[in-house]
Amino acid sequence: MSIDYAFIWTAFKLLLNAIPLTLLMTVLPLLFGSLIAIGITYIRLYNIRFLNPIATFFVSFFRSTPAILHIMLIYILSPMLIDYLAKTIGFSVQTNKIPIAAFVIVALSFTASAYIAEALRSGILAIHVGEVEAGYAVGLTFSQTIRRLILPQSFYYALPNFVNLFVGFLHTTAIAAIVAVPEITGRATVVASTNYSFLEAYIAAALIYWGLSILIEWAAHLLERKITAFKGGIS
User: Fold this and answer.
1) What gap in Å lies between CA 204 and CA 41, rounded to an integer?
2) DSSP string for residues in 108-146
3) Which residues constitute the signal peptide according to the record (predicted)?
């Protein structure tokens, strides 16, 4: 068995076109997931009756089941739900015109929100109780203390977890290939099918994932240094 090194380079260049979609399916779920996670964190901090058990179940379910299952559930159930609601309301919606990547992004957003909510919770637990008391001392309400003091600092303390999530979701996008989304891994399969050089195509894909992961970790390291310097300057 011999490796076609020339085809690795050829596949590498062809796979570069899949990077934007892969990054889109990585960044958007983390952004949307952060918004959902903040809502979940508020519910759990306020211990809102009726909503708190739902938020706890949501986090438990999406952290305890694989992301590939979330994608398949959303991919299958969402068109059925949309068609039902459209029929009930009287709107005309063609679910087959909705990009499959949109369903993947929705599914991964739910997945990300569960993990981010736990990361925020760990960040909040790392904050000294004196921070909350200081907020109250200067006249901040509970809600203002959460928004201005607790959440920003919890994001800082949870930054390493967020970096791991970013890299993890970059790799998780590979499972979108099961629903024919042409991200890096899916594109690699298509490229390899032209001459059955699957090993070479997957090596090229691995190199791209590796390079992107290094860039993410490098950017996070710079961000952490800047935040640390800023906190040190105002402490």
Assistant:
1) 40
2) HHHHHHHHHHHHHHHHHHTS-HHHHHHHHHTT--HHHHI
3) none
C-alpha torsion sign, points 118, 155, 103, 25:
negative
For the chain, what is the largest distance between any 2 Cα atoms, rounded to a whole number of angstroms? Answer: 72
SS3 2: coil
Q: Which two tokens stand for residue 173?
A: 């996008």
* Most confident region among 14-18, 172-176, 219-223 by mean pLDDT: 14-18
Q: pTM for this one?
A: 0.81
CB neighbourhood size of 90 (10 A): 6
Distance linking the first and last C-alpha atoms of the chain:
61
List, for residues 89-102, the tens digit of each pLDDT value: 877 777 777 888 88
Greater pLDDT, 205 or 194: 205
For the segment 182-201, the average pLDDT, to the nearest whole number, is 89
Amino acid at 195: N
152 pLDDT more than 60: yes
Specify the DSSP class assigned to residue 148.
Answer: I
How distant is the alpha carbon of residue 4 from its chain centre? 35
- CA atoms of 215 and 167, how far apart (whole Å): 10
Which of 81, 76, 75 minimizes the C-alpha distance to 101? 75
Indicate the CATH number of 19-183 among 1.10.3720.10, 1.10.10.10, 3.20.190.10, 1.10.287.1700. 1.10.3720.10
In whole angstroms, what is the distance from residue 108 CA to residue 169 CA? 8
Is the distance from CB of 180 to CB of 103 less than 8 angstroms? no
